[in-house]
Predict the 3D structure of the following.
Amino acid sequence: MSLDQKKELQNFSDGLSSKLIYRLFRDPMGVVGLLIVISFLIIAIFADFLAPYDPSKIDILNKLQGPSADHLFGTDQLGRDTLSRLIYGTQIALMVAGVSIGLAVIIGSILGAIAGYGPNWIDFVIMLLFDMVRSYPVIMFALAVVVLFGPSLFTIMAIIVATSFPTYGRLMRTQTQSLRQAEYILSARALGIGMPRILLRHVLPNTIGPILIVASMDVPFVIALEAGLSFLGLGVRPPTPSWGSILNDGYTYIRNSKWILISAGIPLILVTIGFTFLGEQLRDFFDPKIDRGSR
Amino acid sequence: MKASMSPVIEIRGLTIEFNGVPAVKSVDLNISKGHIVGIVGESGSGKSTLASALIGLLPNSARVTSGKILFDDQEITSATPDVLRELRGQRISMVSQDTLSALNPVLTIGEHLIDIQFRETISLAEKRRRSIAALESVHMPDPEARMSMYPHELSGGQKQRVSIAMAVMVKPEILIADEPTTALDATLEVEIIALLKELQRKIGCAMVFVTHHLGVVASLCDDVVVMHQGSIQEMGDVRDVFLTPKNDYTKKLLKCDPAQIEEKCRHLPTMEAPNQKRVEDEEAKIKRLARDQAPILQIKNLTVKFRKPLGLTTLFQKAISREIKAVDNVSLDLFKGETLAIVGESGSGKTTLIRSIVRLVSCHTGTISFFGKSILDQSRNDLEYARNEIALIFQDPIGSLSPRMTVEKIIEEALSSEVGNSDDRVQEVQNLLSLVGLPAKFSCRYPHELSGGQARRVCVARALAQKPKLLIADEPTAGLDVSIQGEILNLLAEIQDKLQLPILIVTHNLNVVRHISDRMVIMLMGVVVEEGATEDIFSNPSHDYTRRLLHSNIHALPE
């Protein structure tokens, strides 16, 4: 290959990578999703600087107030600043959602891909595991685990991973099975490529789309699950602020003040929108067939 | 075309664009009542776009920029969906290309046929009776029993008969057939064409037949339209166009048809070089074929069985009867520098046979040895080694390329790990691309951005990246038009001359086999029925089936 041929190739591939970023930013939905997710990440990381008050500082004289200049989102039944509690709650919400869904996706995808691609007996064993886990009621399972290990953030995450990975696993298994007889998988096998590499390079990129969508829509569900467990006293212990516990407080005191419930609902809705938009955009991003650059 | 006949469809200055790129350029065409019009051209010539415009089924990205289509004074390009719905399935109907996906898998054949009579106000029993009559008219064996069968229980040819029955049942004034025989093999193709002709006579409808198979047009159509890059090059009576073509493009296209070349050519003409045909001289042939050496690939008494899945009905059958022999006691040898063609209709076990060579399917009895070493009882690592030395080119060129990898990555993956340095690997990929005649910039493309011919070239490049000692190609020219078919076959021949590579080709295209293969094997229901030098079999077939197969090969010129 001559030098200028190489140069042409280089230019072409440079153009390609900038095109990918361009593609992600071209769609307003992707930009909105990305902005929301990034701002929540910033809020979580810099909670110490952003929160106007200490989230657990009790000011009983100013309890259950509406929004004001001092307390933008009002105060709760103990006079704690709701905004500060929400800001600190972001840390827990994102950590629970990110870590537990991430782990569940990884574990589920690996097991699902092996079940879908491997021999029948492995499929049978893995499916048995999935069905077994799914057959436990989530709350009963959570109660049992909490009794054994004690309530903590880590326990919550472990419970979420354990109960949600079979969903991703089943999805991955079905997708892999439908690809198993595809000619490009056969041709990879005919090249003598081993199973791990086929799964990683040929199966995974073609199955990741639906997984991303399901995962991004699972984010609010997981946050709500954490809220539910915290409500039962199985999750984050007070006074640690979590969106779930704030929502529950709001539910309890809804007759006295509607502001707690409203202000805790806003970030939950925003996060849901953000992750869903981003997930949708990422799916398109991973699919070379959708090329917005040419339109 | 005869002016006296009143046209059913008039196309006036029709231009259709895709994202600003014209696919059909100011086409004028009259389709006369009761005539069969063949539209031929290379892929991308706009023939399918024209056919779908006739029934108002253009994809959303297409825009009609000028011109009109008049069907009985009704303008089609600007018609409302309601108007179109009244036309479709009543006065215009269509037979589609893909027999596999044209029928709904969860409906029985009977439900399909009864469902399209939804406009009729007759009793269900009457609809049923008509459906059976329609199946009879397409010569379906035992139509009554077929009514309750599902599409997957029928063969490809039978499915196409059902789609034809559905299209013809409404007694349309015009029938559009978009490559209805491409997915079928030679014997079935002849039957379907005879059937279409018979039905067209019976109903007296006009028919538009889109194909890239010149022989089909010659034997079926009254008029022919030759299209190239969206515009009509030549049209007229099929005999005039085929025997005395006036347009340069038509002349070139006809020259490229391998069926029209009498002598056996090693290099086939293409659109770029229509006069190029090289007959290999005897000396070169003897040099290429080193028969005295031991065979590179030797298959002995190979049997491959598939087991029917266990269901309620199969549970009570004996174990033996649940097995299907896809390949039955097959033996063959392949020598250095030789091209061996495996010919047979679909379901004859050709593909299973070649897949068993790389052990994508497991064999039951028999031996396969490659360079004297048995493939079947090798341990896993040795097998991976053998797979690397045997390159397989799959039937579906785009489908066999991983959709989310670029061409560069696809070819690079097949390179042996000995080429370590990443610069060297990129260099090697570039070399391979230029060897198969693709420009360097193709390395950044994704499979869906390639045409059928380009994807086929990438498949060849990937096969060569393995530095194979044996090349196996499954239907390497399926779905390609004559010119690109010639290019791919010439490429394989060049590579064979250069590397003395033995090539095993699986195909049902007899016109291709006649030119490129040294020996051929004919398979029927998993059994080899005849084997020998290509010339001998073509001039003097000994088995009944071979004779039938050769006889069914469509004539290149109109009678």
